[in-house]
Amino acid sequence: MIEVRMPEAGFSITEGTVIEWYKKIGDTVNEGENVVSVETDKITVDLPAEGKGVLQEVRYDAGEVVPVGDVLGIIAESGEKISESPEKESPEKSIKKDADTEIDHIGKVADTGFASDGRRISPAAKATARVHGIDISVIKEGTGPGGRIIKKDVLSYLEKIKGKEGKRISIGAEQKALKVGLTGREERRVEFTGWRKVIADRMVKSTTEVPHYMMSVEADVTELRAVIDRLRAREGLHVTYLHFMMKAIEAGIEDEPLINTWCDGNGYTIKEDLNIGIAVDLGEKLLVPVVNNVRGKSVLELTKELEELVRKTREENLETADVEGGTITLTNVGMFATTYATSVIVQPQVAIVYMGAVTEAPGIWNGAVAIREKMTFGATFDHRVVNGAAGGRFLKRVKECLEDMGELVARLR
Q1: Are residues 226 and 360 in the same domain?
Q2: CA angle at residue 314 from 311 to 316, to 5 degrees?
Q3: What's the CA gap between 53 and 32, in Å, rounded?
Q4: With contact defined as beta carbons under 8 Å apart, do 137 and 180 qualify?
Q5: What are the C-alpha distances in Å from 115 to residues 190, 267, 331?
Q6: What is the average per-residue pLDDT within 140-155?
Q7: Which end of the chain is more exposed for a tag (fewer CB within 10 A), N or C?
Q8: Is residue 175 domain-resident?
Q9: Cis peptide before 348, with omega less than 30 degrees from 0?
C-alpha cells in the first residue's frame, strides 16, 4: 500500500490545497507517474506515485485544504485491503451565514463551501476558478443541486469569456481575473482569495510581529555598468546589476553576520549558508525562488542559475527545494523605474534588500562635475535582531563593493 501525502513546503507552511487529481479511483498508476497536483502559498507541484498499483481511495477532493503530512489518497494492489479513511466532517454541518469561513478546533480558518452571499460552491469549482484565474464571485448561478456552483459552471463561464475576448485565458493568470466580468466602469467588490489572500495574510503577520526599520544609500555604479557591458559581450549572458548585488550582499554579511539570520520570536539563529530569495512578479502572484549557496558561486554561475529559476517560476514548474531555505531576500524595484522602496520582511528572515532604478545624475569625478550612473538601494531590517548601526554598516559595505571594482573583485575570489 502506498500513501500519497501532502508534502512539506518549507518553514511555517502548515497546509496546502488539492488542485486536480490526474487519476480516478480504479485507474492503474505506474511508478513515477503524476497522480495529483497540490498548491501551497509557495508553489504548485505534481506528486508522483512512489510505486505501481491502483488508485483505490481519494480522501481529499479538488479544492479541499489539507494539513501537511495528511494522506491524500491510497495506491494499492488490486484486492489489497487498505485501512479505513478517517471520516471528514461535512462543511454543511457548521455554517456561518454571513461569512465563507469557519473556525476549526485548533483555531485555523477552514473553507465551508459557501460564499459570503450564501451561494453554495463546490471545492472543485473553487479550485478550477483559481487555476484559471477566474474570480468566482462573477458566477451568480449554479447548475448543481440547490443552485450549487460546480466545476461545470466555471468551465462554461470560461468558454463564454473566451468567446467574448477571442483569445485563450492563460492558466494561473490571476491578475486578469480582476478584469473578468467587468463592463465599462462597473464597480464590484473582490474578496481576498487564493494568492492575494496568502500575500495579504503573510504581510499583515510580518508587519504586526516584526518591528521594521528602513535605511537607504546611493551608489555610483558607473564603473560597474562598464564591467557588466563587457561581460555581456564576452559571455553572451544577460548579466545585470542584480547578480553583482548578490555578491555585494555576501560581502556585507561577512562583515555583519546578523543580517543572515532567522528569528522565531523567542530568539534567532545565525545561518551558516547564504541563500538569497529573489522576488519574481507574476501579476497577482509573487513568488520568491531561492538561489542557494551564493558564497560558492561566481557572478556568471549566479546569472545562469537565476535565469533557470525565473524560467521555472514563470512556467510554474518550481519544485519544493527551489523555494525553501532563503536567509535573506532581494527585490528589484528598478525594473518599474522606481528609485526607492519600503519592503516588508519575509519571515523568519530579518532583512530584505531592494534595488532601485539606475539613473543618470551629476556627480563629482576626479575633481570635476560629470554625469554618473547612480542607484539608490537599501534594506528593511528586523529591529529585534539588527540594530541601526549594524544595518548601516551592512549597507556601507555593500555600497563600497558596488562602487570599488578592486574591492568587489577581491570579494569575488
Answers
A1: yes
A2: 105
A3: 11
A4: no
A5: 12, 41, 35
A6: 81
A7: C
A8: yes
A9: yes
State the cell numbers at 203: 504581510
Check residue 17 and give its pLDDT: 82
According to DSSP, the β-strands at 328-332 and 351-365 are: parallel
The phi-psi region of residue 173 (left if phi > 0; otherwise alpha if psi is between -120 and 50; otherwise beta) is: beta
Q: Are 384 and 251 in contact (CB under 8 A)?
A: no
CA distance 392 to 398: 10
Question: In terms of domains, do 133 and 219 share one?
Answer: no
Query: Which is nearest to 4 in space by CA: 32, 40, 41?
Result: 32
Q: What is the rounded end-to-end Cα distance, in angstroms, of the chain?
A: 52
Average pLDDT of the residues of the chain? 81
The domain tally of the chain equals 3
In-domain check, residue 389: yes
Which three cell numbers, joined as nine digits, stand for 199? 500575500
For residues 152 and 393, which has the higher predicted lDDT (pLDDT)? 393
pLDDT digits 0-9 by tens, 189-226: 777 766 677 778 889 999 999 999 999 999 999 999 99
- 198/203 Cα distance (integer angstroms): 9
CATH code assigned at 47:
2.40.50.100
**Interacting residues of 199 by C-beta distance below 8 A, sequence separation 6+:** 286
Q: Is residue 114 part of a domain?
A: no
Distances in whole angstroms, Cα of residue 324 to Cα of each of 123, 264, 270, 291: 28, 16, 17, 10
Q: Tell me, what's the pLDDT at 149?
A: 86
Residue 94 CB contacts under 8 Å (≥ 6 apart), including other chains = 102, 112
Q: What is the dihedral of CA 219, 224, 229, 230, to 10 degrees?
A: 180
User: How far apart are alpha carbons 413 and 405 in whole angstroms?
Assistant: 13
Sheet strands (E) in 94-133: 101-103, 109-111
- Other CB atoms within 10 Å distance of the CB of residue 87: 6
- pLDDT tens digits, one per residue of 156-165: 887 877 665 4
Q: Which domain holds residue 227?
A: 199-412
113-143 pLDDT tens trace = 445 455 678 766 776 776 666 777 788 888 8
156 and 217, same structural domain? no
Over range 148-154, report the average pLDDT. Answer: 82
Of 34-48, 163-177, 301-315, the poorest mean pLDDT is in: 163-177
Same domain, residue pair 241 and 362: yes
At 333, the pLDDT band (50, 70, 90 cuts) reads very high
Give dist(CA 294, CA 34) in Å, integer: 32
